Amino acid sequence: MKKLLVGLALMVGSALAQTQLKVGVILPLSGPSAVAGKAALNGIQLAADEANAGGKVRLELVVVDDGTDPSKAVPAFTKLMTVDRVDIVIGGLASGVTFALSGPVKQYRPLFLAIGAASSVVEQAFEGYPLFFHYHPWDYHNVAAALQFFQYLNREHGAKKVAILYEDGPFGSAGIKVYQEQLKKLGYEVQAEPYKTGSGQFTPILTRFRAFRPDILYWIGYDVDALPIAAQTRQVGLRPKLIYGAPPSWPVGFEKNPLSQDVVGMTAWLPTLTNLESRRFVEAYRKKYGEVTEEYMAPMGYVIVKSLALAVERAGSADKNRIAEALASLTMDTPFGPLSFKPSDTGKTRYQGFGPEIWLQIQYIQGTRRPVFPKEKASVPLRYPGEYYLR
Amino acid sequence: MELFAQTLLNGVLMAGVYALVATGLALSLGVVGIVNFAHGEFLMLGAYLSYLLFAFRGVDPLLSLGLAFLAAFLVGALTYHGLIRPVLKAPELNQMLLTFGLSVFLQNLALLLFGADTRVVAPPYQAATLALGPFFLGAVPLGAFLLSLALLLLLQLFLTRSRLGLAVRAVAQNRLAPGLLGIEAEAVYLLAFGLSAALAGVAGVMLSVMLYASPTVGFLFTLKSFAIVALAGLGNLKGVIPAALVLALAEALVSTYVPGGGGLVEAVFFLVLFLALVGRVWRAA
């Protein structure tokens, strides 16, 4: 009887010590960014399970779909604020949607933990908002990492001409002019054309690029465009030495498609990375979902919830301002490397997580993604020119 | 000049698929008198069927074409029987709301069953190219164009040479008179609506190889088909191919010659639709 009472007292004590928190999650579970959105949600749920099993924090997730569409995202966010009454929101994957959410976020003032939204248009929109934590690198970080790779291609492989296909939303077109100028400074001739994502019609633009004879075909867009571009490049007789893509995610099964061979892209993470946190994440993910993901949004979602749980634990409170304070002073190891928050490079937002250092260039080789640049992270040498040039 | 000729070729090849999808829409509009907003979802059905057969049974999309035709015909016929027939005499707004609701339902059903992921079908000839001197033709777009043309030719033969086809045309011209001659209008409606869905289903298989399969793949083609049908004249089957050519060539030319034209492609069909409707009003005035 005495043991039972002690046990009961311990349980009550731990329940009282446990900080309970309702967290809103707004992600693209449908629409062009759905692959990345679902990967992110898997990572978020995995970390929430781990945090809840730890006993000190109890996170209840309220998940809504933004449809990769501002007109769906704003009502979904409003529901989180007014019906579910959450104080903390994880979301902001697609830039266009996050830009649309900036007004409602400032109106309802939650602690907003942004998982993606790389466009500096978003950085500008959230300027001065004190509860905005942006984990993903900004577009200028992405550009810096990509430029480093282009510099290498220019220097080591003699690449001189880049044809850029960019989607005409905020993701693809923000900063495209600056990007072109920077490529020109590196010694490249540049030709850039916008396109409508999901339209699947690239033959006219690619035909025009044929006269330009680019060494690199660089595409900035979404997963739905990957296969039509890879196929139509061949169909119009365009023979770039490298097809380089920068989508937030790749289509399901793209690696198994022969057209993916030698396509190069940029990612922030691969399951083959050997750091301890990455290996832990891969193991936990496999245990929960029975598979391994290659989408970097999965560990990104995981990192956000892990850091939130740690901040809640340190704050010892469910108050969003105290959690934000704890988060701001946090330092932790993650699958991407160390995480801590500092003001963004432009000084517009106060809390920026990762920078250009997390990016690595990968190449699809025989159905797998292999790191090829920077050299210290490469597992195989870059295949340049790719088979689409050699055929 | 070479660029111009290649641009025209690209446009002509795309026109084949546009014409196939739009002919289905024109059939349902011209014969049954229904504005079918769910037309693109029959296309999506064909795309997913092609994906599933390829992914789980390794069936080549070329072989899926016949199956998609039959499956989409069946779904179209069932849709007509269960949903369209009861509202044939209802106000047009009710009919449109019904097909719009059906479109939303089918899209969400696909979302539920397959998720929003983009699915790709990858037969070995997917990127095959034919080089004719300085010109390049993708084997798949060329095949899709030729197949579309063959199907439209068969449809034309069916409508002009067979008794059933003549009955379809008779019902399209006058809903009451054919009944006096013993033509079962109900059966003709069912046939026309089924055929309309079947053509979209076949186009879906082609697009699963040329683009991808996803719950929303048909939506854009529905919009473009409306522009084509409006340009051809509502329900005018003969005008569909020239109208599809106009739209596809306009898109290709804008994309090639207008600076930043790739981002304006979707505006082209709105412009075509706008001009067609304004032109019609002017002619009627």
Characteristics of this structure?
heterodimer, A: Rossmann fold, Rossmann fold, 2 domains, 7-stranded mixed sheet, 43% helix, globular, B: mainly alpha, two-stranded antiparallel sheet
Helix content class of chain B? over 70%
Quaternary structure: heterodimer
The profile of the biggest β sheet of chain A is: 7 strands, mixed
Total beta strand runs of chain A: 15
Could you tell me the strand content of chain A as a percent range?
15-25%
CATH fold descriptor of the largest domain in chain A: Rossmann fold
Biggest sheet character of chain B = 2 strands, antiparallel
Mean pLDDT of chain B: 86
* Protein chains sharing the most extensive interface: A-B, 42 and 45 residues
Number of helices of chain B: 11
Number of domains of chain B: 1
Could you tell me the radius of gyration of chain A in angstroms?
22 Å
From the 3D coordinates, which CATH architecture of the largest domain in chain A would you assign? 3-Layer(aba) Sandwich
Description:
The complex is a heterodimer of chains A (391) and B (285). With 391 residues, chain A is of the alpha/beta class. Chain A is 43% helix and 20% strand. A 7-stranded mixed β-sheet of chain A has the order 7-6-8-9-10-14-15, sandwiched between helices. The longest helix of chain A has 21 residues, at 34-54. The model of chain A has no long low-confidence stretch (mean pLDDT 90). Chain A has 2 domains: 2-137 and 273-356, Rossmann fold, CATH 3.40.50.2300; 140-267 and 360-390, Response regulator (Rossmann fold), CATH 3.40.50.2300. Chain B has 285 residues and is mainly alpha-helical. Chain B has 11 helices and 2 strands. Chain B has helices at 2-32, 39-57, 61-84, 92-114, 139-161, 163-173, 177-180, 185-210, 217-232, 240-257, 265-284, and strands at residues 129-132, 135-138. In chain B, strands 1-2 form a two-stranded antiparallel sheet. The longest helix of chain B has 31 residues, at 2-32. The termini of chain B are far apart. The relative contact order of chain B is 0.21. The mean pLDDT of chain B is 86.
